[in-house]
Amino acid sequence: MKMSYRWIYVWMRNRDAYFKTFRVNFLPPLLEPLLYLFALGFGLGTFVQDIQGVPYVVYIAPALVAITTMYNAFFECSYNSFVRMYYEKTFDAIISTPVNLDEVVAGEIAWGATKAMINALLVLAVVAAFGLAHWPHSLLVIPLSLLGGFVFAALALLFTAVVPTIDSFNYPFYLFITPMFLFSGTFFPLEVLPGPLQKLAWALLPLTHVVYTFRTLMFGHLHWGLLWSALWMMAVGTLAFYLSAVLMRRRLIV
What we know:
single chain
C-alpha cells in the first residue's frame, strides 16, 4: 500500500459535503435510536424485569449508542461510497490528482469512522440526559466509537469493492448487519443463547465487542476485557482496511 498524509483531503471533502446538508444528515440518525429508547426502554421496559441488576432502559441504552455507530459507519462506506465511486465518479476524479487510490480508501474509511463517532456522541448525550450513563467512564465511549466506526467503515468498503450493483448491498445488510443488530447482546444478554452461538457472536460479530465495551463503560466499570475487545476491533478493522484497498485497486485500476 502507498500511503501519505493526502488521505486527509478525501476526509475533508466528505466532511464539507456532510455539513452542507447537516440538517438532513443530523436528524434521522438521532431520531431512530430515540424511538428505540422510548418504545423499548420506557415502553416495553416497564414489563421487563431488571437485567444484570439494572432496569431494562439502562441495559439497552449503551446498545443504542453502539447500533448508531454501526449503522452510520456501514451506511456511509457502503451506499454513500458506492454512489461516489460508481455514479458520481468521484474516486476517478480524485485519483487523477496526486492522491492515490489507497489514500482514497483511507480517507473514506476515516470519514465513515468520524461520522459514526459524531452520531454516537449525539446519542450518548441524549441517553446521558436521561441519567442512563455513568460518568466519567462514559467519556471513553467517544474514542471507542471512533474505533468501532473504523471497523464497520472498513468492512463496508470491503463490500463496496466487490458488489456489482447498489442493490446488492441488500445481502450484507440482511445477512450481516441485521443478525448483528439482533444477536450481539443488544436487547438481551448473550448468555441466554446456546454456547456455540455465543462463541460465534464473539468471534464473528464486531457489534458484540462494541456493545460490550460501551455497556461496561456506561455502567461505570473498567477491566482488562475492554482491552481485549479493543485489540480485537483494531485487528479486524486493519485487516478489512487492507483487503478493501486491495479489492478496490482490482476493481478500479487492474
